[in-house]
Write a structure and sequence with these properties.
The structure is a homotetramer.
Chain A (H helix, E strand, L loop, with lengths): L3 E17 L9 E13 L15 H12 L7 H13 L4 E18 L2 E22 L2 E15 L24 E11 L8 H15 L5 H14 L4 E10 L2 E3 L13 E4 L4 E9 L1
Antiparallel strand pairs in A: 1-2, 2-3, 3-4, 4-5, 5-6, 6-7, 7-10, 8-9
């Protein structure tokens, strides 16, 4: 028999929608829409030999998420995830819990210039993410944003790179820069001001817009610096930025020039730039 | 040899990004981001026997899209699609042309409260669609919206439906109603005011929000009526509305009630409601 | 109020897995794995005005699929779909029923050279499809295959096509031909030998393999002819064949030739060739 | 300015298709179809400050993959990935290279009982994967399989698990077990017999089929043990097995029993079981 070097199990993609209705009938509703993964590590070796006596069913994990959401105010996904992590950490055999969540934004539908109190539109494609890890008694909260799709039509260059025998790319001082930003920042222990997410999002977007980019890396670093500057509770930020290439179309066969006007957007291959910046 | 009863060919998913920069250096840029399909019908029977003399290459269709976009103002996808349809209709053998397009919305990134002139965010997940068909000398324009995801937390009932031996669904006067709206409306011949899209979108959303829904069908009809009311050029509207079920979770095993608070969002199966409403 | 020109509703993506176990304990099991859509048309106009008295709940449709599968031998998806269509056609208000199904293939896992009696592998990515339509008392059965992905490395040419000012594609006598075949054939009324699917699949594949292709259209036609030749019950066949372009990479910048050896496979844009062939 | 704690960049989803044709005209062709990611780490800090002098363009990485594939026999993805890793490791600034690949299987189309020499079918949905890492002068090869979808209709139980106040799941001695296997094993240094992949795949499948399962964990461990037993070069194996739940449908409202015959297959939520087993 061979030994287990590492193992983990849990329930993935638990879909929880909670409607918070306020105290009076006219109050605006709030929609909490979370997709949650629960993952446990611990003394589960016997399970792999067929003994389920320590194996909390993943179905029970799902039930727990729904039951614990009932009657509990969920101001931030992070605080609910911390409560779940505390619950599962107290189970027998468990040494480490990880609660992952993903959340789209539902905004009130505008009716006659005002937000409707109980009708919502999924207003953008991005997701608010979090990963809460409880390892023994230490809890770590990482919050993030995924699928924030942006593009700038100028103020982006890529030149001065090395040329070897396989290099054909032309240098350019003016190209389209397009990416889908994934960001994740780690809060210092005991931070509670999870509304910082909004400031970080604004810092990332404003910096992307105004930065004179020499490369994706160059802009990524400026964005990460700006994010850390607006949130003293963030210890680090990891940014993942695919370079969604927009290639200038060669129109010369048709007797036409192309002064940075007509592009083909490509899905693959794509550049992939990743970095973690610490305070 | 068996006869051809119908045939069509073309190029699908031509990705065109055009940057319109305005006349002076400070002018705000505009991003046109179209995914275009070109489809031709006509006297192409010989191609199926191996004679390519009438077979305009689909690669040529792609080149044509890029070349015709150069230097041409694209105010609406519809007007560019009409120009493409006219071009291909004039090719030998062609009797019918269909140009399909899909377009996400790029909005200026807000910096210090103002829209940035050349940095953009893909502000939501919906797509603006169009299908332009030129059949002989007659051109039909259908415009639409896809993936408009909405939810209301109340003002939605479903009761009074028939019960047979396979019916278990409880009647409800208060449920979540969630859907991803796909809409497509046909313009009267020679209509040119394609900015009507915005009014139709508002009418669909406001009606979804404020309608006292007896069923998805009931709300769909009200939305279609409202859309036709705000656009005299629209002859009809087709709405496709999947019913994205949010099921109330049974919390009684845990000693808890659930007064329309905790739901599980399900992907499948889903109800699917479709109708075309004419003026 | 505007009139309804057309409407339809139903339940989509009902996931049914049935295990048929045979009469004795050692018998090999059979797995039926169907994704079913039920769609109804009829006198449902009042539903759109908020009167649900004729609106069979889509939840009831789902229940019906599961209940009718119990104890009923499902030799072919088509025969089960016909039974479902007959059931729903007998409901009040219903004038037309469409039952759509999609089915992956589960093959016994080979253990020591023999198929295991109750362990299965989803042996390929293709789906077996069917659309059964009952309109009044007339039932039409269309069967098909989707996502049959094939490629040939030679015996495929594309030349002799017209050249206009937007044509840059080079003629070629030897290229890669790759596609994902979607096929759908209509059975003559009262046909019952739905196992013909296997012969049609073989005819499509063998013809794709051995045909000296002058174009996708040319090969599509030969494949359709071959399919109709092996199934006298098939009245027509519709084939949809995207041209998944494999572009020869230009290696001359690196001092290398490329005698049809190194290709880049592209997802988009792609050619799209469709035809219906009748007997 | 904040420091970089970690960074990496490269090109993702380079699509390479190579046709190996053999020496004489009648020889069977071989199709190599790889999707490759190249990722570099090293002294790239200045790039993040806008100095591109050390930033090998990701476009050059793509060109390198195509050029190095020309004229080079690719027996296994692993050997080609090692060659790529060696090439990039020799570039200035680079300290670590990771080459990831994914490869579907193309099998000859059977024509008259024989495999056709140059026509192929993508015979199943699974992917062969590899991750080759060169860190300084040490090279690690991890090979794997992804998306191997299997199901067993009996010989699977789940009982004896703990019950707390949130547990509702019934114990069962006979359920469907279905999963999509992802496996990845690490070869000992200098291993070259990458054809071991086939033996490991067989061991995984045969063990899945014949194991009397007490849980997904129990079967996962048996599969991992079997895989290591047939490949002395494998130091460890990591298995990821989502539990694709098939829920018994309650037919009692319809007056029917359901002796493990009718199931609803669910996509989400799903159990997720992961473990790494070492020799």
């Amino acid at each position: 028999m061979t030994p287990l070097a590492w193992d983990r199990y849990g329930k993935a993609r638990i879909r929880l929608v909670k409607v918070e209705r306020g105290s009076d009938a006219d109050a605006a509703h709030d929609v909490i829409d979370l997709t949650i993964d629960v993952q446990l590590e611990g003394a589960f070796g016997a399970v792999f030999d067929g003994d389920n006596s320590a194996c909390l069913a993943t179905d029970t994990m799902k039930n727990t998420v729904y039951a614990m959401a009932r009657g509990r105010r969920i101001e931030h996904a992070e605080t609910f995830a911390i409560a779940l992590a505390d619950h599962f950490a107290a189970q027998p055999a468990v040494s480490k819990v990880q609660i992952t969540s993903s959340e789209p934004e539902w905004s009130p539908i505008a009716v006659g210039g005002h937000g409707h109190p109980h009708a919502f539109i999924q207003s953008n494609a991005e997701q608010r993410t979090s990963v809460v890890t409880r390892d023994g008694s230490a809890t770590t909260v990482i919050s993030g944003i995924a699928n924030l799709v942006v593009l700038k039509t100028t103020d982006s260059a890529f030149s001065g790179f090395p040329r070897d025998r396989f290099t054909t790319l032309a240098e350019t001082e003016d190209r389209i820069l397009a990416t889908s930003i994934t960001a994740a920042w780690t809060y210092r222990r005991d931070a509670t001001e999870f509304a910082a997410r909004s400031r970080i999002r604004t810092a990332l977007l404003e910096t992307f817009a105004t930065h004179h980019s020499r490369s994706v890396q160059h802009t990524l670093k400026a964005m990460g610096d700006a994010a850390l500057a607006v949130c003293a509770d963030a210890l680090d930020i990891t940014l993942t930025m695919p370079n969604r290439h927009h290639l200038l179309v060669d129109l010369t066969p048709f007797g036409l020039d192309n002064p940075n006007e007509i592009f083909v957007a490509t899905d693959q291959p794509y550049g992939l730039i990743e970095a973690r910046i610490v305070r």
